[in-house]
Amino acid sequence: MSNIFRNYGCFKQHQLGSSLGFWNIASEDWFPSHHIPVRFESSPKAQPERLQYVSWLRDTTSLLIIFNNDIYYRHSPEDETNTRLTFTGQPDVVFNGVPDWLYQEDVLQSQEALWPSYDGTHLLYATFNDTEVGILNFPWFQTEAVLAGGKASNRPMLFPGSKSIRYPTPGTPIPQVQLWVLDISNLTNLENYQVMPPNALEGQDYYMTSAGWIGQKNTEVSVVWINRAQNLSIVSACLAPNWTCIESHTERSLERAWLEVQEHPIFSPDGDSFLMLAHVQEGRRETYTHIKHITVTQQHIAVLSHGPHEISPQSDNYRAPFYVLQCEGPGLPLAGMHNSTSHKLLKILYDTRIGHGVLLQDLAMPKKRSFEVPLPQGSLAEVQLLLPPSWREELRDAAYPVVVEVNGRPGSKSVTEKFVVDWATFMSSHCDVVYIKLDVRGSRGRADKALYRQLGGIEVQDQISAIDYLLNKDHKYHKYLDKTRIGIWGWGYGGYVTSMVLGMGNQQKVFKCGIAVNPITDWLYYNSAFTEKVLGLPTENYKGYVQADATQRAKNIPRKSFFLLHGMADLTAPYQHSVLLSRALAEHGVLFRYQSYPDEGHELSGVLEHVYSSMQNFFEECLKLDTEERELPATEDT
């Protein structure tokens, strides 16, 4: 990731921290010693330090740096001294300017929580206090240098170590958030002011979902708050000198629904009106994200966009003379620079059709078909088929094995026209399968109400209903689908859906086997922010938690039909989820395949090749796939 200002390029990597370096664009030379030495009074470590965040301070050559959960100021890249701006940071407990794990994962979904004023003289930042939040411990097997026979060798420690993170679960304490405005115009006399939330939130738990400055006078900020149940959101304005927030607008969820975190509102310079994204009901069932215009003094609300489609968040510098338009599908990706006024194409930045287009002509690529199928209660599922290269519409007796990829997470989107060459492409082409992706109720723009207080029900049944419909003899593609060889798989929430589908046992006759990668299994052990907005608190909806528990269905999973994979350092869906499911399977005598990956997180980035090879092998055995080289019919592509 990079930021560039004038003659300097600042390169940073957020997640695990990084050492700080600058590239002098004018001289094309690193200075000094390739990395600028960063010295902190609180650290005895030698250089270079590992940093959590680095950014330019607006349009200046000054820097904001976060180290050990505290914020520092550096006057320029060449400067070797730093001014400490906050003093309360504690590793893993108190975070200044960077979110804790929950806020980074599911609330802000960002790796920064600080907002400089327009002129760079003031800094709005958040502090997250996790003192009361529960601790998740997980094993850590990282190799270390060990002396063996007088020689150093890398091998695992004799006994695993452990790591921990503050991880709030449903019904337990959540992080406490505070906002502060810091005057940094005089670094020798720092003045810090707390931003006080609206009175409506007094005495209850809440989240801060976004913040920013209003205008250019350094006297007003806007903050969006949401209550713990996530059915009430408050857009507030907070003014100097006391910085107490006053409600500007309140959003309440529709009946049997919740609110989603949206991008921060865009305010007019005087702060009297703003644009925001919000859920708007279209028709009887569906809700879509649309644009609202709010006038604060008149309390006037206007919905500016309508229709059965989603408005995607995008905020740009509208004064810029150029913009970049990226086209990501359905053909090969390309991007061009356009004039902001005339929209004329000025320059092609990249065009993968050149060169790659010729290469693709020589590859046996699957054929993509997208359409909708009916679901119970008048709903629709969006379906996408990847038909293998050997498929031709005129074929009469060619029933292919089927692999269905599921997600099902509320607000997710699986069916798109984006051009990708992924595992789905490989399986369809190499293994001669029909690969299916589905968006059912609960996915983006498809009735969140269906999942309210009842995860693992409707979105699971919809997967079965959609495939059942495709297998119906009246459907045009039914003759190409081998109903005796259908597999299902998913990752994270999709792994949960897979477990729940197979856990229906004899109640479902569609899927022969399935793979769950890093699945959620028991919602009592998932993070509080996501779980509570859908299921509520366990004390209020205990029945919903029990019915959504995949371990309760373990006894119904057919023998030798289930493959479970999980990273032992997964923080999104902690490894405990698969431990609970595997224990339930063992208690009921269910034979299944199980693979664990030490020191791997939710993305399994260090072992992806092994993961996909293992999945391919499982489906080859279960669905009796033919992976031998085959000659394709020499007919025209359909």
UniProtKB/TrEMBL annotation:
Residues 421-624 form the Peptidase S9 prolyl oligopeptidase catalytic domain. SUPFAM superfamilies: alpha/beta-Hydrolases, DPP6 N-terminal domain-like. Signal peptide: none annotated. The keyword Metal-binding does not apply. One of its GO terms (molecular function) is serine-type peptidase activity. Keywords: Glycoprotein. GO terms for biological process: proteolysis. Residues 46-311 form the Dipeptidylpeptidase IV N-terminal domain. It comes from the Eukaryota. Pfam families: DPPIV_N, Peptidase_S9. The keyword Glycoprotein applies. One of its GO terms (cellular component) is plasma membrane. Belongs to the peptidase S9B family. DPPIV subfamily. This is Venom dipeptidyl peptidase 4. It comes from Dendroctonus ponderosae.
